[in-house]
Amino acid sequence: MAKQERAAARPDMPTEAAQAHRFGKARSAQSTALLEDYVELISDLLASAGEARPTDVARRFGVSHATAIKTIARLKREGLATSKPYRGVFLTPDGEALAERVRNRHRLVVDLLVAVGVPADSAEADAEGIEHHVSDAALDAFRDFLAGR
Amino acid sequence: MAKQERAAARPDMPTEAAQAHRFGKARSAQSTALLEDYVELISDLLASAGEARPTDVARRFGVSHATAIKTIARLKREGLATSKPYRGVFLTPDGEALAERVRNRHRLVVDLLVAVGVPADSAEADAEGIEHHVSDAALDAFRDFLAGR
DNA sequence: CCGAATTTGTAGCCTCGACTACATTTTGGT
DNA sequence: ACCAAAATGTAGTCGAGGCTACAAATTCGG
Ligand SMILES: [Mn+2]
Ligand SMILES: [Mn+2]
Ligand SMILES: [Mn+2]
Ligand SMILES: [Mn+2]
């Protein structure tokens, strides 16, 4: 029966492959979301307090300190952070660069949401999840929209 | 046994706790994202082909059939779907209702992205991830924006 | 109607991200 | 200086969500 499902399908229905690809993109974006949030948070702590302790990261992120330490270990594995036992966490140049990109993107997303009428606190909350799924093309559009309205 | 949230000190919630709360929201949204996508996909397949087979779901979602079957088992556990061996998958009333909500939300997000200038294909791809992190307050704002511009 | 192809199901393995419990190290108060 | 508290690290467990390999059921072509 699966003969001509393409012809019979709705015109606006995506092809199988295209849809699978989009779902895959969303999944892979999710796999880096945690790292992005950690790097951004650590960068903020370093800037505001001069140091980023695992306990602080855990409290700000809302997880146990053991969880934070394991995620920090993953950051180190991925070359984004460094740390020595009982000293704070620091970012590598790659980590700093990522933090900067993530911070700018976060702000852009919040600004866009506010610009289209989302209440500020909702915008801030939603952006925390949305930011990880916004493509560069969308960010460009957001910038243009914010500049030109 | 959901742990109770202490949302008492409303007026000026500490930045630290507020941030932790936002991160927690994003995490919990992510935990339901997969179920939402499956339910929406199954609903589409049921509407367009009259049936939703595990193999079709797997191919459209871009995962192995074993993975799809396991996720469908989770849908059944959560009361969103039903199925009998070697028959297709169907949605419970709860599942249908969720699919409808998710489908409308998906469209709204795409429309909003396009309205602020995001290219259509980027909008469609980004929406697949973004949709799961858009609050009702934001959706209301999106509707108003689309209606009133 | 029957054998082969397809579909479906099961089992076992992996990584990630969460937790608790406990061990160790550092820090701070007296 | 010392002991207690806090911070940090480690170990073990869990469920979700992937995978591959294999087994069983169903559907189809001849
Ligand atoms: Mn985030
Ligand atoms: Mn962020
Ligand atoms: Mn989606
Ligand atoms: Mn969707």
Textual characterization of the structure:
Chain A has 149 residues and is mainly α. Chain A has one domain (31-147): Winged helix-like DNA-binding domain superfamily/Winged helix DNA-binding domain (Arc Repressor Mutant, subunit A, Orthogonal Bundle), CATH 1.10.10.10. Chain A is built from 7 helices and 2 strands, in the order ααααββααα. Chain A has helices at residues 5-8, 16-49, 54-61, 65-77, 93-115, 120-130, 136-148; strands at 81-83, 89-91. In chain A, strands 1-2 form a two-stranded antiparallel ribbon. In chain A, strand 1 and strand 2 form a beta hairpin. In chain A, helix 2 (16-49) crosses helix 5, helix 3 (54-61) packs across helix 4 and helix 5 packs across helix 7. Mean pLDDT of chain A is 91; it is low at 1-11. At the A-B interface, helix 2, helix 3, helix 6 and helix 7 of A face helix 1, helix 2, helix 5 and helix 6 of B. Bound molecules: manganese (II) ion (4 copies). Residues 37, 128, 131-132 of chain A line the site of one manganese (II) ion. Chain A binds a DNA duplex (30 and 30 nucleotides) through helix 2 and helix 4.
